[in-house]
What does this fold into?
Amino acid sequence: MSIISVKFLFFLFVSLFMYYVVPRKIQWKILLIISYLYYLIAGMENIVFLILTSLTTFFTGKKLDSINIEYDAIIEKKVIAGELVSKDEKQDLKQNGKKQKRKYLVFALVFNFGILFALKYSNVLNGIFAGINSLFGFSDKPFFFSWTIPIGISYYTFQSMGYLIDLYRKKYSAEKDILKFMLFVSYFPQLIQGPINRYDNLSQKLYDEHSFCVKKIFGGAELITWGLFKKLVISDRLAVITGAIFGKPERYSGCFLIVATVLSMIQLYTDFSGGIDIVRGISEMFGINLPENFLRPFFARNMAEYWRRWHITLNNWWRDYIFYPLSLSKTLNRVGKGAKKIFGNEFGKKFPILISIVIIRIINSIWHGATGSSILGGLYYGIILAASFYLEPSLKKITIRLGINTECFSWKLFQIVRTFCLMSVPRLVSNAKSLSDGANYFRCLFLKYNPWILFDGSLYKLGLSRPQFLLTMIAICLLVFVSYIQEKGKEVRACISGQNIIFRWLVYTTMIYLIILLGAYGNGYDAKAFIYAQF
It folds into this structure.
């Protein structure tokens, strides 16, 4: 059930009615029922894996919490009895507790991430084994079962495992009520395509009592409308152009591929951020605010800032649960000491961080798709990001010596354009099914020198007529304008709500009219699924 369908709109209306008509003490229970009903409609297999993750995480979390309590109680008992507890003794108790907890944590991580890996990459593994078998003349039948990937499995797996890691680190106590924990895992708006929440940030919002508030309903509706505008008016229309060019790179070579690459970046952003806006708007109607997942990444002035603005909750997950432990690990510290001897003290000190940056970007690319072109893109991002981190002090010195004003508009614009171009390169081959196809895209990029296609009407023959193409460009300009206002620290929704009722409703009806009139749907249109909902 797509969140941009009439069926979902009816489901949301009924859900909101049920949520606010019942006593506020049981609202969270209604929300749990609604969430499971949503997954049940999507397919029984969704429920099976959702329950499996919820149960294993809940009981593992209780065990981790009991070990934390047990070892804290031992120390407290000794103190009450008047015994002196030395630092070494405390350290030994702490290490013994960690060893016990680590066994349970590793089991839960391997079990749940194993399920995720098997479901997401069964087709990839089948292809690898089929190729090996055919090479040696054996049967090329699938080695693994092929499964339909359950809705939101990546998001609730990451969210649940983050909960366990935080318990291991004694960040908070475990949830005692299994039904409340199942709501935390299954809350349906967030798992359509994120964001990835933390237990201490979301749980209480789910369990709190929420009164019906017209302002929240309208605020959520505004966010949903803006998300629909991004998705239907911009992203799905751009998909027509990028699909035509990437589908026939030999025919549409040279500048056509440059146009497709740039528009593909905008398409991906408006698709994902539009979906997140819809999800956050739905959640806001229930009185539950979800964190922002995008902060206008195309205004970023370097790649590190870009990743801090893009898919924020996932990148924060990588940072907190993989990057920090990896860069501070004993293994990489030993490697860093060796690098100091070979390359010098400065490089050696940064080497563990540089390696960790590259590894994180590769892991991120594998999560998005285990294809050769995707992994190569992750390696590209990792190397560029690591190089910019290492060279940042030197580049600052160069700009100072050259007398460059780094706060003027022209320099900031240069940095923004440079970052956009660097981030766009892998998008050229992101639709490639193999490395050979990706290489073909690069080859076709240099087949022709044809910049005149930007002015001779060639772009109007890619699936969108001239008026449709121009309207899409105007919609992109509107997106940039709104984003610029937000970048200046102004809340657009607050500005609109502060106007008189006639102006507000003029804005609302205009946006709805634009979506109905310009949205990419209708007879013969095959609605595109949200790109990130497939991950």
